[in-house]
Design goal:
GO terms for molecular function: carboxy-lyase activity; flavin prenyltransferase activity. It catalyses: dimethylallyl phosphate + FMNH2 = prenylated FMNH2 + phosphate. Belongs to the UbiX/PAD1 family. Pfam families: Flavoprotein. The radius of gyration is 15 Å and the shape is globular. The chain has one domain: Flavin prenyltransferase-like (Rossmann fold). The chain has 187 residues and is of the alpha/beta class. The termini are far apart. The longest helix is centred in the C-terminal third of the chain and has 14 residues. The chain has seven helices and six strands, in the order E-H-E-H-H-E-E-H-H-E-H-E-H. Helix 4 crosses helix 6.
Length: 187
């Protein structure tokens, strides 16, 4: 069975992590979620979801301070992790192995075990420090996947735009949730 860890950090764009959990649940992929305290506030501010609803989307949830959780160890087998959204604070901590909280520790485990790590970095514009942190994570094997929408599939709603990014993130795990129309060449 496929198992994915989903970290939701405090950056704007909590809907990306929520939508990933919804999709994983709908297709039967086991999910392990960590929601930071800042993400709890962002979920409340940016969405109509209650925290309990988001928690119930995951098969397993962990407290951000629970460094001893199963997902903090490389011996706990998962297929990888998505941090959606990934704040610059989380990006920087991951890039520099600053593992004081579970999201960054679990991400570090993915890198050290050579498992897939996808970061949906939510910031704009980027400064040099942001770009250097992204470069470090990429050099360690992580994937930086900012939520940059495409328009060839003619999105009509915010959900269409979110689904395209979520679909691209799941593609990294060879999970085709059929969330958006793929480019098939000019007609």
């Amino acid at each position: 069975m496929t198992k994915i860890v989903v970290g939701i950090s405090g950056a704007s764009g909590a809907i990306y992590g929520i939508r990933i959990l919804e999709v994983l649940k709908s297709i039967g992929v086991e999910s392990h979620a960590i929601i930071s305290k800042a993400a709890e506030k962002t979920i409340s501010y940016e969405t109509s979801y209650h925290l309990d609803e988001v928690i119930n989307l995951a098969d397993f949830t962990y407290e951000q301070k629970d460094i001893g959780a199963s997902i903090s160890s490389g011996s706990f087998k998962v297929d990888g992790m998505i941090v959606a959204p990934c704040s610059i604070k989380s990006l920087s901590a991951i890039a520099h192995s600053y593992n004081d909280e579970l999201i960054t520790r679990a991400a570090d485990v993915q890198l050290k075990e050579r498992r897939k790590l996808v970061l949906i970095v939510r910031e704009t514009p980027f400064n040099l420090s942001h770009l250097q942190s992204m470069t470090l994570v990429t050099q360690m094997g992580g994937v930086i996947l900012p939520p940059v929408p495409s328009f060839y599939h003619k999105p009509q709603t915010i959900e269409d735009i979110v689904n395209q990014t979520v679909g691209k993130a799941l593609d990294q795990f060879n999970i085709d949730a059929q969330l958006f129309n793929r480019w098939s060449g000019e007609v």
